[in-house]
Design goal:
mainly alpha; Arc Repressor Mutant, subunit A; about 55% helix; Nse4_C; nucleus; Nse4/EID; DNA recombination; DNA damage
Length: about 300
């Protein structure tokens, strides 16, 4: 108990006028707290209630009967004090209800960013893309590329009936017979050279190679189709990647070592076949667009990248 409170108890036991003055003073302070609820409201109210209890305990029962105005002032102080406690409770609930943890975190982050000794860098989430995708079963997406997949109209070919002369014709052995294993070996060698060509261009120029510039043969439409199929096999096996650049053109680049290793480990399950088609009209348009002097896939002569 403070010295001020002890003085109150001594003086109040000898002077009814001073007791009334103290009651009026505490009633005024309590009304001020009623109008302005703040951080120190509870502490101030606790002190006022302790002082009024001291005054009330020092009064005799006869004094309370003779001085009813003191009892009235005491009851007013109690009433206003209870209203102050009610307002404190409402203020506490009102301050706690709108709490939002997301808003609170954003305010802390904004405060830290404004500090002169703090430097924050953006999180490099794309670094984790390859690792996270390994844990997800991603469904492959299919889309048309530059309209080259536009199907042609199917022509109905009537089957020719076999006549009696066709049955009697003796079979002749073809004059030029080429071994199948030699053909397959030639295709594999061509595909390997195409992969080497794309890899060399990527290492030398540090950028992907234009797809149509790679496959286009300006003097032979059949070679163009053949080159397209060879590149398609490399893309299917995961050795090359077919993408679009910023201008929307198809480009080809070698796959990374990690992608090649994953393709070999998964086998045929991870293969993606790019089925493409091109007709003579489209081939003619591509020739006029690219103005190529010669075919890039021409391993009989030196290739200039």
């Amino acid at each position: 108990m403070s010295d001020n409170e002890n003085n109150v108890s001594v003086e109040s036991s000898h002077s009814p006028q001073k007791r009334k003055a103290f009651y009026r003073e505490y009633l005024g302070k309590t009304k001020v707290l009623q109008e302005n609820v703040g951080k120190n409201t509870i502490t101030t109210l606790r002190t006022i209630m302790a002082n009024t209890d001291i005054i009330n305990e020092d009064e005799e029962a006869i004094d309370k009967a003779n001085y009813t105005d003191e009892v009235l002032l005491d009851s007013e102080v109690m009433y206003v004090s209870s209203d102050v406690l009610k307002r404190c409770t409402e203020t506490l609930n009102k301050d706690m209800s709108p709490y939002d943890h997301t808003e609170f975190a954003e305010k802390i982050l904004s405060y830290v960013r404004l500090r002169p000794d703090t430097m924050l860098e953006e999180a490099h989430w794309p670094i984790l893309t390859d690792e996270v995708l390994k844990c997800l079963n991603v469904t492959p997406q299919y889309s048309y590329l530059l309209g080259t997949l536009k199907p042609l109209e199917k022509r109905h070919i009537a089957k020719r009936k076999q006549g009696p002369r066709d049955i009697q014709v003796a079979t002749k052995r073809p004059e030029n017979v080429q071994a199948v294993d030699k053909v397959e070996h030639g295709v594999e060698e061509t595909v390997r050279k195409i992969k080497t060509l794309v890899s060399h261009h990527y290492k030398t120029n540090d950028k992907p190679l234009d797809f149509f510039k790679l496959i286009l043969n300006p003097v032979d439409f059949g070679r163009t189709v053949e080159n397209m199929l060879h590149v398609s096999f490399l893309i299917r096996d995961g050795l090359l990647q077919l993408t679009k650049d910023k201008r929307g053109k198809l480009v080809v680049q070698p796959s990374s070592k990690e992608a090649c290793t994953n393709a070999k480990r998964k086998g045929n399950d991870s293969h993606i076949q790019n089925v493409m088609s091109i007709n003579a009209g489209q081939w003619q348009i591509l020739k006029e667009t690219y103005h190529l002097d010669g075919a890039m896939i021409n391993f009989t002569t030196s290739v200039h990248l």
